[in-house]
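[Q] Does anyone have a clean structure-token version of this?
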Amino acid sequence: MKTLHVDLGRQWRGGQNQALLLVQGLLDRGHATELIAVLGSPLARQAQDAGIQVHAVGHPGARLQASLQVTRLLKPDTFDAVHCHDAHGLTAAWIAGAHRRAPVVASRRVAYALTRNRIALSRYRSARKIIAVSRFVKDSVLASGLPDTQVEVVYDGVPLPPQAPRYRRIAAPPLIGCVGYLLPEKGQELLIRAMPLILGKNAGCRLILAGDGPSRAGLEQLARELKVGQAIQFAGHVEDVSQVYRALDVFLFPSLAEPLGSSLLAAMSHGLPVAAVAGGAVPEIVEDEGNGLLVAEPQASAMAGAVLRLLDDPELAARLGAAGRATIEERFTVGRMVEATLDVYQRL
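[A] Here you go.
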């Protein structure tokens, strides 16, 4: 099977990571793949480094240039499917009329309903299949009026560390933290507001926030106002984020309505015990008391309580960490994601 992939993201986010893992997985299985990506973007660079054939388009004007690339590449019988990994890529393929020459697959990674604008909806109606990263996202697509038969759920996959580290007994001082872009909806404010309560019971605890984004200045100001700034490290962008997972004792996932949660999956793959807000697709991953702790409402007291339980009970933390790792092995590996996507292609 030969597939053409389009992703016009200029930053390195979860969607670009999954696109790269998918294309690499297809190549490893003997399938021919090519990628249209933005010149100089992290995805384009990493794909080229991996030996993937990349057709680079400039920015600004990436959608128009990508549309011209799709038109040039999509000759009769050249590709079995065109997979658009973001909305801009889907727009480019739609402008090029790709759906008239090959089946189009569109990934959907966000949970807000599709606009009911007729032209905007036409892009998604042109796709033979829409791949939603969770049931939560699928429901948002169906709420826009698209038929159930058009939408498939394929969960993200994460690489498994060669050997999950054995969960160590909580050291003093313990390190808790999360990984993610700093945005209001990602919920980092909740963690900062929980810190006074956590420090009141465990004065040595430290919080690391790995990631950057528009909310950083406001979060740093809040930490100063709450007089917890000395206990919080704003790490900014971390190139090798696996170092963060290996350093942590407890992983926190405060996102308020997450479409899935790539960093949550990665943390669980490292055998970390997790405490997460029970919003969005998180309950599709985390079973409360089974493979993690769920916080029913985004309240600082509830999050602090979950953190302190894990810090105070190493046996509970170890059990949940091991169960989380098992969940990833069973349901959220890269191999499973690639095979599930291939199955969608083969049923087009």
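[Q] Thanks! Anything notable?
[A] The longest helix spans residues 314-331.
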